[in-house]
Amino acid sequence: MGALCRDCGATPADGRPSCPACGGRRIVCHPELFTLAIAHVDCDAFFAAVEKRDRPELADRPVIVGGGARGVVATACYIARLSGVASAMPMFRARALCPDAVVIAPDMAKYAAAARRIRALMGDLTPLVEPLSIDEAALDLAGTEALHGAPPAVTLARLALAVEREVGVTVSIGLAANRLLAKIAAGRDKPRGFAVIGAEAPALLAPAPVGLLPGIGAVAAARLAARGIRTLGQIQRLGEGEARALFGADGPAMVARARGEDARPVVRGHATRSLSAETTFATDLAAGRDLELALWPLVERLAGRLRAADLAAAGVVLKLRTAGFATRTRAVRLGQPTRLTETLFAAAAALLAREADGTRFRLLGIAAQPLTPGGQADAPDLADPELPRRRAREEAIHALRERFGPGAIRRGRGW
To answer: Which of 262, 266, 226 has the alpha carbon at shortest distance from 246?
Structure first.
């Protein structure tokens, strides 16, 4: 059985309680440790970890990154989670559960910078890195042993140490034979985890609740529970007909996933599907002018994210949530891809005008979807001779903000 010290990357002899090289006791052992090559890397409480990195005085304090009184939790540190705080929880509930928490508004530019550094460290290990979100990715390290002089498990342990040393946050790693099992493994030992799932996967998954499987949310889990199915082992034993009756055409594939089977490859540089920005209002808004004023800073934020990711919007999606928590989404395709703030605003404002019918809204959001490479943004157009001037103005504003900060220059609409 292979053994690996997560504190230094050494490979001590099997059975030792501590590492002879560094004295560390975080030893991971598994029969397939040095043969598996698919990994899932997930940052631990990422936004909160970045904030604690930059404010060491918060190291032992509960920290919540999120919106105002009517917003939701973006990330809670593990100290706050001990009080029951969880991501996507309404802020009023999170504050009630953890009244001593330090609440910090999200700083996406700072988190994106940290994520890019982590992504670069992953890219040094293998070209097959598939980003899944700002703080997690799948990696395929098959065939990299000769390059790094070590099996993938050791290379991943070194990655975790490099992230802590160079970025100042921690990651949890799952190592397995496929993407599904690697993702499940990454969540088994957080924070600073390193878990391995091999041939024991079907037996390991059998007693787990059905909700562990991606694709089975709370509603589907409740529906299955009503039929007496609560564990993955019960799904594993379904015949093809039973599986189709429960899950439709996806039934046989769902049974295979319940056994830990997954044939999806890791895709290099998997494209981001959308970028978005949204806000929850302190008080409900109904007037079209008020909603339009709230839309502008969201569009500016979205344009900045497109630029940072070197992407362009080929379409715009508007999201509204009413005071009664009903969600409306409206979308429009653009004539050509763009990341110009004014162009994005014009498209979103037109959608918004049709929805401003006196309904009171508690949330407003905008997304760029679908996305295209940034090089396709705002190509010269003979029908729009002012386009080069607008592009130059946007570039100048961006340069000033990059040099002097986001508040260095503001447009009249933003006041």
So the answer is: 226
Helix, strand and coil in the chain, % to nearest 5? 40, 25, 35
Residue pair 243/253 in contact (Cβ under 8 Å)? The answer is no
- Pick the closest to residue 170 from 186, 153, 148 (CA basis): 186
Task: Report the range of poorest mean pLDDT among 54-63, 291-300, 394-403.
Answer: 394-403
What lies within 8 Å, CB to CB, of 106 at 6+ separation is: 47, 65, 66, 67, 74
- Preceding amide of 106 cis, omega within 30: no
136 is catalytic: yes
pLDDT tens-digit readout, 326-341: 899 999 988 888 989 9
Structure tokens at 356: 């401003």
Token code pair at residue 414: 């933003």
Parallel, antiparallel or unpaired: strands 63-66 and 102-104: parallel
Q: Which of 51, 130, 136, 278 is catalytic?
A: 136
Terminus-to-terminus CA distance in the chain, angstroms? 64
Specify the residue for token string 């899932």. Answer: 40
pLDDT, tens digit (0-9, with 9 covering 90-100), for 203-259: 999 999 999 988 787 778 898 999 999 999 999 999 999 999 888 888 899 999 999
Of how many residues is the chain composed? Answer: 415
List, edge to edge, every strand of the sheet that includes 63-66. Answer: 73-76, 63-66, 102-104
User: What domains does the chain contain, in order, with CATH numbers?
Assistant: 202-258 (1.10.150.20), 275-414 (3.30.1490.100)
21-32 tens-digit pLDDT: 898 889 999 999
Which long-range contacts does 350-354 make (Cβ < 8 Å, 24+ apart)? 351/316, 351/318, 352/288, 352/291, 352/292, 352/295, 352/318, 352/320, 353/288, 354/330
State how far the Cα of 159 lies from the Cα of 153, in Å rounded to an integer: 10
**Which backbone phi and psi does 15 adopt, to 5 degrees?**
95, -10
State the DSSP code for 133. E
Q: Where are the alpha helices (DSSP H) in 206-287?
A: 218-226, 232-236, 240-247, 251-258
